[in-house]
Design the sequence.
């Protein structure tokens, strides 16, 4: 028995044992074998049954007993498709608990139903086993069946592996399909890994019989596996991003809770200190009390009023008086709620907070009564009245920006910030409770749409793009490897035939030597042809960039003629189209010019001579004089040394760096300074500006060809300038880099060896 066949037999046997153990565990009520870990999903009865049939079918086809394969493969396919239809069409076909009542997942919306991913895995596995039972042949159709079976086996393995990885990283399995289904059990994932491995091993045995080069779909199988893995990883990153947002909302809710509690505690402490001062004085001075109360109202915004009430329910004072005169009326303290609250404070001599009431001044709020104790006896209360809307708007000002917030009292809403967003509230709302001095307020908080959008990351999109690109490259490598192997086998057969000919006909040695000589000549000719082709390719790129300038110039010229001749005579939209064409032609011309300049660097050697850098800088400034004047810029420089280099190329370096300093500027006039200093065996040149600056993470990216950090509308250009600078400096044996912070300008450094 070959190794791949043995792997298939062992894998199928373990799958049968796994399904059998779980099936027996359901009958004897042994949850430990049904659910591996408390946090794991349970393997359903139908899942265990499908594993037994799939394992039997795979074992039968691996040991060439295909009589039982068709039936064994059809059972998982039927159950998988029926379960999948239940999910897709919201049906209940009665198959979930037809054989066994699920008593482990009573809280599940669909007790006894296998996960959607599990149903997909069984559909693919059963379908593969049914195809594997077909009669073998060397036809194209049979090879295509092998490709299809390998694809299905790859997907089955990926489903299992991703389930285990996501379980180990404590992330929700993305293909659990949210509320529609449950996640796959870890034991089921192990079963699918074994089942898929067995199927792929069978495919490998068929590939060996029919030669690997005949399995043309192998690159497609690798691509399908890579795409499946990439999509699952992409979904997992989205789930993790969602969980991060939930954690952020929870932290914000806790912060809001602590802020409300702390700031309310500060206000209550101020009332407590005021009551203590009144209690310590046998004859409190009205003016002093009013001054203290008004200071509290001033220092702690949110107070409607602070009142001093004696034991006879008479209001002795109120601050501030303006707007609160109605509180002085005797009828206020006879109101049942306030009187009951007063009597409670008199009886307990403890601070008490009312429920939400109608304020005398208007609006809804609550009052805080702090007992005044003088000589151990109750001497009245200090009452603090709060207007709920004003108080919480003051407390929560600047706290949790970008979040909707609702604060509820015991029986009604006290405060609401921002309009309702039902969809976001239903998805992200996080309730919390503020408790102090026997009072409970419920806070509900959820992010606004802009906050949720700002939290979104590009990482899932980058992961998706990178995964798809890597998958494509791997598939291409596999295809090239197959082609290389096929050619190697052809060469091997040819060599064996030559050896037999040489053994039979010794007289043909001379002819063979001639043939070898001819072959060597062909190799030399091919080598020369290849070198010529490489040179032609480089020349083609140069000529293409050069010759394309004339058609572009013609398009630009005739478009300008159209603009001058028909400007204002056609529809406004036509004028816009002509403008777009002119702009596009100009950009293409700039791009070709920069590309041609870049290619010319490889076409000719640099003319190295002693070159005064001050002359180079003056030449560069001369070509930019109109731009400097238009920008109201100031360019200064220290004395610059003489270096050995190509004056024309170094002028291009200074010109590009100065152009960037003039282009990427802030509202203030550009200020550019150039200097040089000796460092070891190099001259280090620096060009510093006061422009918009560059984020440090893009310090290397900006030197790549066609790389731009801004749109064409913001800052025009081709993205070739810094690439040309880097190419020139490296050809001179130096290096170039940038040091910058956003909004603080940038300093470009480059080195040139000393003379």
Sequence:
């Amino acid at each position: 028995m070959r190794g791949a066949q043995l792997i298939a037999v062992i894998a199928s046997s373990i799958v049968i044992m796994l399904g059998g153990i779980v099936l027996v565990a359901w009958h004897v009520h042994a949850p430990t074998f049904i659910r591996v870990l408390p946090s794991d999903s349970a393997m359903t009865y139908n899942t265990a049954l499908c594993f037994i049939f799939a394992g039997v079918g795979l074992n039968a086809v691996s040991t060439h007993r295909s009589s039982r394969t068709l039936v064994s493969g059809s059972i998982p396919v039927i159950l998988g498709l029926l379960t999948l239809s239940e999910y897709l069409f919201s049906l209940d076909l009665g198959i979930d608990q037809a054989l066994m009542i699920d008593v482990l997942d009573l809280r599940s919306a669909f007790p006894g139903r296998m996960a959607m991913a599990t149903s997909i895995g069984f559909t693919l596995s059963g379908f593969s086993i049914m195809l594997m039972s077909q009669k073998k042949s060397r036809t194209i159709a049979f090879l295509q069946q092998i490709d299809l079976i390998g694809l299905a086996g790859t997907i089955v393995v990926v489903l299992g592996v991703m389930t285990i990885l996501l379980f180990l990283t404590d992330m929700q399995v993305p293909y659990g399909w949210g509320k529609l289904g449950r996640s796959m059990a870890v034991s089921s994932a192990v079963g699918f890994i074994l089942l898929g491995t067995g199927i792929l091993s069978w495919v490998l045995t068929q590939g060996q019989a029919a030669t690997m080069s005949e399995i043309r779909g192998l690159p497609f199988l690798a691509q399908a596996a890579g795409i499946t893995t990439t999509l699952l990883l992409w979904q997992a990153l989205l789930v993790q991003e969602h969980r991060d947002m939930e954690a952020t909302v929870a932290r914000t809710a806790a912060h809001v809770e602590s802020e409300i509690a702390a700031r309310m505690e500060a206000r209550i402490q101020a009332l407590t200190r005021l009551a203590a001062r009144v209690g310590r004085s046998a004859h409190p001075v009205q003016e002093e009390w009013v001054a203290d109360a008004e200071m509290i109202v001033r220092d702690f915004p949110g107070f409607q009023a602070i009142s001093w009430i004696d034991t006879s329910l008479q209001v002795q004072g109120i601050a501030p008086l303006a707007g609160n005169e109605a509180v002085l009326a005797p009828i206020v303290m006879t109101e049942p709620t306030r009187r009951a609250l007063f009597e409670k404070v008199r009886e307990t001599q403890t601070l008490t907070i009312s429920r939400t009431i109608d304020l005398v001044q208007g609006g809804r709020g609550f009052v805080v009564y702090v007992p005044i104790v003088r000589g151990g006896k109750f001497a009245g209360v200090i009452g603090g009245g709060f207007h709920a809307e004003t108080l919480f708007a003051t407390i929560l000002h600047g706290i949790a920006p970008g979040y909707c917030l609702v604060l509820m009292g015991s029986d009604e809403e006290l405060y609401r910030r921002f309009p309702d967003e039902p969809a976001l509230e239903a998805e992200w709302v996080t309730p919390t409770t503020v408790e102090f001095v026997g009072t409970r307020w419920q806070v509900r908080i959820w992010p606004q749409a802009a906050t949720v959008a700002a939290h979104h990351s590009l990482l899932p999109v980058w992961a998706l793009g990178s995964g798809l690109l890597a998958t494509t490259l791997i598939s291409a490598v596999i295809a090239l490897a197959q082609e290389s192997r096929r050619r190697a086998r052809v060469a091997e057969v040819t060599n064996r035939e030559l050896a037999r000919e040489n053994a039979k006909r010794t007289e043909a040695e001379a002819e063979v030597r001639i043939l070898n000589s001819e072959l060597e000549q062909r190799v030399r000719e091919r080598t020369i042809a290849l070198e010529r082709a490489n040179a032609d390719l480089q020349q083609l790129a140069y000529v293409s960039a050069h010759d394309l300038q004339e058609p572009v110039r013609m398009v630009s010229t005739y478009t300008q003629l159209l603009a001058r001749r028909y400007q204002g005579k056609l529809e406004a939209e036509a004028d816009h189209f002509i403008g777009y064409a002119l702009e596009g032609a100009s950009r293409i011309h700039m791009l070709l010019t920069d590309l041609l300049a870049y290619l010319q660097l490889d076409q000719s050697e640099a003319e190295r001579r002693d070159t005064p850098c001050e002359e180079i800088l003056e030449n560069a400034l001369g070509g930019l004089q109109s731009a400097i004047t238009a920008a109201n810029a100031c360019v200064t420089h220290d004395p610059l040394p003489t270096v050995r280099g190509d004056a024309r190329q170094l002028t291009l370096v200074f010109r590009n760096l100065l152009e960037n300093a003039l282009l990427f500027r802030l509202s203030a006039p550009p200020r550019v300074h150039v200097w040089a200093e000796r460092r070891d065996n190099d001259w280090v040149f620096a060009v510093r500006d006061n422009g918009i600056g560059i984020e440090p993470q893009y310090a290397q990216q900006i030197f790549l060809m066609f790389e731009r950090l801004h749109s064409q509308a913001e800052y025009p250009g081709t993205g070739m300038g810094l690439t040309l600078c880097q190419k020139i400096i490296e050809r001179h044996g130096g290096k170039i880099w940038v040091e910058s912070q956003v909004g603080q300008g940038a300093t470009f450094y480059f080195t040139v060896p000393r003379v």
Summary: The chain has three domains: 3-211, 247-457, 609-753. Residues 218-280 form the longest helix (63 residues). Residues 306 and 384 are 5 Å apart (CA to CA). The radius of gyration is 41 Å.
